Amino acid sequence: MPKIKCTSTNDLKRKYPYLKETVDDKDNVRCNHCMAVFALSHGGRSDMNKHSQTQKHKSSIEAAASSSRVTNFFKPANSDQSLKLAAKEAAFAYHTAIHGQSFTSSDRTSKLVSKFFEPKFALARTKCEAVIVNAIAPMVAADLR
Q1: What is the biggest distance separating any 2 CA atoms in the chain, rounded to whole angstroms?
Q2: Model's pTM, two decimal places?
C-alpha cells in the first residue's frame, strides 16, 4: 500500500511562516530565509524541522538579524516633517527672489539657518535656483495670466 503524500497545511503554514509553497510544484516549499527549496511529500513536518536545524538556515537567520534593511537608508517620501522642511525652503527661496538677492547669498544664509534654527535646512545656490526657476516662477507666471 502506497504511503500518503504530505502537503502544506494551514497548521504548518502558521508554525513555519517563512516557508512558502513554490509556484511550479505544490509539493515543494521555499524557505524565505535561505532560499532553499525542498519537498514535503515524503517527510512533511520532519523535513521542516530538519531544514530549520541546518547550518545554512541558521547562518542566514543570523545574517538577516545583523544587517539592516535597505529601506532604513531612505526617508519616507511624504512625511509631515519633510513637507514642512520643503515649505520652509520654498519660503526662503521666495524671499530670496522677491528681495532680489543673489543665489550666492543663499549659501551662507542657509548655513546660518541650519545652525541656529533648523538643522536639516539646506538651500544652497543651486537648490535655491532650482526651486525658484522650476516651482515658484511657473506658479507666478500662471497667476499673472
Answers
A1: 92
A2: 0.46
